[in-house]
Design a protein that fits this description.
It is built from five helices and no strands. It folds into two domains: 1-43; 57-156. The radius of gyration is 25 Å and the shape is globular. The N and C termini lie far apart (73 Å). It is mainly α. Helices cover 66% and strands 0% of the residues. α2 (57-77) runs antiparallel to α4 and α3 (105-122) runs antiparallel to α4. Bound molecules: heme C (HEC). The site of heme C has 26 residues, from α2, α3 and α4.
Length: 160
């Protein structure tokens, strides 16, 4: 009987410590998840509006570039280029970002090399359309690695 009680006590203690560990673990993974989702929505989310005043000029431009690039992709797969050069993309240098800290010489550098990729695509011989398109999309990814990791997965899917 004493043995049984002892065992029971042991079982309860073990159970209690197990539950404590479980709770602690789930709390820390909750914290991690919260930190991640916070990072996603503040650094760069493709879904939620990022600031209380609505989406920034740059965020709207990005969304539109994303849609246009997806339609370029379909044309390029057929060996064609869109007829009109997307002038809108040039606004990347002037559109206001959500976070003013984004506007740095590093950002400008990525924006310039991204636009160089766009020019190269438009000057591309037919047999290099696909590779030049992928280089252009890599220009999006390069900048995003520095400034806005959230949408990288989506952007990579644009590659052919
Ligand atoms: C020079 C850097 C740079 C380049 C190049 C760039 N992006 Fe972005 N992108 C950003 C930044 C910074 C943001 C965050 C904008 C903001 O919140 O104001 C962003 C935001 C986005 C978003 C989220 C928009 C939203 O709804 O909040 C998408 C999607 C996106 N970019 C796709 C692209 C695609 C596709 C390309 C290439 C065709 C591209 N980006 C090229 C820096 C860049």
């Amino acid at each position: 009987m004493v043995l049984f009680l002892k065992n029971k006590f042991f079982v309860y203690t073990a159970l209690a410590s197990f539950m404590l560990i479980a709770v602690q673990c789930s709390q820390s993974s909750d914290k991690k998840a919260a930190a991640l989702s916070q990072k996603d929505s503040t650094v760069c989310s493709s879904k939620k509006p990022l600031n209380p005043n609505g989406d920034s000029e740059l965020a709207l431009l990005m969304r539109s570039m994303n849609t246009s690039t997806a339609s370029f992709r379909e044309l390029i797969k057929q060996g064609k280029l869109p007829e009109k050069f997307p002038e809108e993309f040039l606004k990347i240098h002037t559109a206001k970002p959500t976070d003013p800290a984004t506007s740095t010489p590093i950002f400008e550098g990525f924006a310039t090399s991204y636009l160089n990729g766009l020019n190269k695509l438009y000057a591309s011989p037919k047999d290099q359309l696909t590779s030049n398109f992928n280089i252009f999309v890599q220009g999006c990814v390069d900048c995003h690695q520095q400034f806005c990791p959230g949408p990288i997965k989506t952007i990579n899917k644009l590659k052919i």
